[in-house]
Amino acid sequence: MRAGLPGASRAPGVFLLVVTIVEKTGFCGPAADDDRRRFYRGQSMAGMFQAGDYLTLEPVPIAAIRPGDVVIYAGQDQEGEPEDVVHRVVARAPGGLVARGDNNPGVDNVLVTADNLLGRVTYAERGGIIHPVRGGRWGLLRARLFHAWAYGRLYGWRVARFLGRWPYRALRRSGLVPHFWQPAITRIVLTPTDGPAVVKYVSRGRTVARWWPATGRFLCRRPYDLVIRRPRRAA
Full-prediction pTM beyond 0.70? Predict the structure, then answer.
């Protein structure tokens, strides 16, 4: 993927290709007026940068880069084409620096080295306003907090759902909900000529439960299973 000028028109097919590629990687391209400026596009550093932000690039030796600094290095896109990548350095390693996008689940599969390092990002311009880009331990702290929030949002709901199964089942067995929640439910019996009968329970125009009397199969959406009891199969 090659960098383009802000505001340039794109064919629909090209736009879709860009969206697919930059889902996990933040790319940037040179601005038209300055080799030390880049414009950002991608999602891996969302929260820090937005698509179209102008990034000021400071050429520095690799020894001056600290964990937490945002850097731009020469990388490749998924098609193997040369592309500048903007990510945050998160650690040092033998042979180079480990980088990672703030939104990415893992670190980059290549190290940042003296050969591919283009510089450190010091400022970001958005809507004519220039903001300093903090690095070092403050930048690393921000990245870690962002990672923790992202993982909490991803897995917190799963944990809450897992832990909430037992209280929900206990509430369903108690039979208390129908005493204070009585939604309007219509029971419709369908008897097709080429199959078994099925009973539909409809609330507000939506089917919330189905029952097949011949087999005893019963499906009910939550939270309607708190008020709709499984019918008994006829003997």
Answer: no
